[in-house]
Amino acid sequence: MASTTSWSFLDPPNRGYHRSFVTKISSNQWDKYTDCSLHIHYKLSVLAFWDPYELANYRDSYTFYHHGHSNLELPVVAMNSNGSSLLLNVALSGADLEIHVPFHLRYGEPSPDGHQSAEISMPIAFFSCPAAQVSGVDSLPWPTEFTTLSVSDERACLAIQSEPAAAVMISVPVGNPGDFHIVEAGTVLTMVACFCYLVVVFRQTWRRLYYNSGHAKVE
After folding, report:
1. Domain of 130: which CATH number?
2. What pLDDT digit, counting tens, does each position of 118-141 carry?
């Protein structure tokens, strides 16, 4: 199989809560896979998540199936430790493919060093082909999270040769537990200041309305 796959981040891996995978696939034997479907299997830790509504914008490039956490708002502390998975069915549109998969990072657990990190492994790209077409070639197991989507025994999953790549560490800034008392005090002072401001505004408004009402009665 003369296909290769590589991936990278659009943005530097240590900046921002909005990231993106870029998976590039090239081959000089695309004509051999006309009866096959191309899939990419991604896994994320609980620190990261996919937005299905955002992924829908890439419907011309792929369809997707999601497994795992679907809540887009909860921080890490409000969730269990299980991550999530994504399986793409990529449209074969040319010899060179560039697949963009955006994802986001959650607010992490407080840490004394002010950061929380997680590891993201390289995705697995594979073809699902008629078994008779690729007889004698070792077949990958279908991703266990998506067994309900698994194809029949008449098809085989063939891994695409990938360029060597190490797992990527992602990191997000988080609160320091040692600063909590300062944050709590600041929050209380802010709430009190807002309350006092509202009282002053309410009093000024009431006096203005009362004065205008009394003035109108005199006239």
Report:
1. 2.60.40
2. 888 888 888 888 877 666 667 788
Domain residues for 100? Answer: 3-173
Residue type, 174: V
Paired with 126 in beta bridges are 39, 159
Q: Is 28 left (phi over 0), alpha (psi -120 to 50) or beta?
A: alpha
Q: Which residues is 19 bridged to in the sheet? A: 103
Asked if residue 136 and residue 90 are part of one domain, the reply reads yes
Are the CB atoms for 154 and 133 separated by under 8 Å?
no
Inform me whether the pLDDT recorded for 64 exceeds 60.
yes
Q: Return the structure tokens found at 201.
A: 């505004």
Give this prediction's pTM. Answer: 0.74
Same structural domain, 83 and 126: yes
Q: Is 85 found in the same domain as 25?
A: yes
Task: For the sheet with 3-9, list strands across it.
Answer: 3-9, 18-27, 96-105, 48-49
